[in-house]
Amino acid sequence: MREITRYANRKMYDSRTRGYITLAGVARLVAKGEPVKVTDRDSGTDMTSSVFLQAMMEQERGKPGTFGSGSLAGLLRGAGKKRGKP
């Protein structure tokens, strides 16, 4: 498991490489199949999902259409079901 620490200034630190990592770097790790966990340094909160969503937004911003609107709508529908909403 790749442990990433996210600081209040939004910088992320990779404990394995002992250096900072970007959103694109996190996305590359995930694309290679590497298990990643991102934790907020101050609160200890698991920020993994939030960071993954930010990485997806950056990819979409750089190359519009990367994620089809149908796929994104499916994610939103699934998120609503997970919270117990119809």
> What does the largest sheet look like?
4 strands, mixed
Mean pLDDT: 89
**How many β-strand stretches?**
4
Distance between the termini: 34 Å
Q: How do the strands line up in the largest sheet?
A: 3-2-1-4
Number of domains: 1
Write down the oligomeric state: single chain
Count the DSSP helices.
Answer: 3
Radius of gyration: 14 Å
Shape: globular
- Summarize the helix and strand pattern as letters: EEEHEHH
State which percent range the strand residues make up: 15-25%
The poorly predicted ranges are none
Helix share bin: 40-55%
Q: What structural category do the secondary elements indicate?
A: alpha+beta
Quick take:
The chain has 86 residues and is an alpha+beta fold. The model has no long low-confidence stretch (mean pLDDT 89).
Which helices and strands appear, and what pairs or packs with what?
Blueprint: E1 2-6, E2 12-14, E3 19-21, H1 23-31, E4 36-40, H2 48-62, H3 69-82
Helix pairs in contact: 1-2
